[in-house]
Design goal:
Blueprint (H helix, E strand, L loop, with lengths): L3 H4 L1 E2 L4 E2 L4 H11 L3 E5 L5 E6 H7 L12 H4 L7 E2 L4 H10 L5 E5 L2 E6 L1 H7 L2 H12 L3
Parallel strand pairs: 2-3, 5-6
Antiparallel strand pairs: 1-7, 3-4, 6-7
Helix pairs in contact: 5-7
């Protein structure tokens, strides 16, 4: 049985909620990623920050990314799965909430992220097509 831990990209890093968006962008560049989980002061997931969030939600609105924090951008209820979750749980979480990146936790600690690229390497063509249709569907 394939699990979230098998599918995920290891080495994901948090961005603390108090960090500014310019620092988040630098970290994204260093890690070559387009999204970072946001952690509160207790290292609990409180959101996900994407490169698009920085551009559309900050820069395009005329705000200074050196003054806006990752926590300012955290909205909604963060979604995640345990490392031992099976493929159906991973797909259910991503499809049910129309999300493209999913943090993976183990013992309440971030251990990885599952992205579209990870799905493409581990799903059948039929599973991948079903995921894409539900996640990208307007609705």
């Amino acid at each position: 049985m394939t699990t979230a831990g098998d599918m995920m990209h290891r080495g994901a890093q948090w961005i603390p909620a108090h960090e500014t968006l310019d620092r988040a962008a630098q970290l994204m560049r260093e890690l070559n990623v387009g999204a970072l989980p946001i952690s509160d002061e207790n290292e609990r997931l409180c959101g996900i920050l994407t490169d698009r969030d920085i551009v559309v939600g900050c820069v395009a609105m005329g705000h200074d990314p050196a003054r806006v924090t990752a926590g300012d951008m955290a909205k909604g209820t963060p979604r995640w799965v345990e490392a031992d979750a099976d493929v159906s749980e991973v797909l259910g979480e991503m499809q049910g909430h129309q999300i493209r990146r999913l943090p993976v936790v183990e013992n309440k600690r971030l251990v990885g992220m599952i992205s579209e690229a990870d799905l493409a390497m581990h799903l059948t063509e039929q599973q991948l097509a079903g995921w894409a249709e539900s996640v990208y569907a307007k609705g």
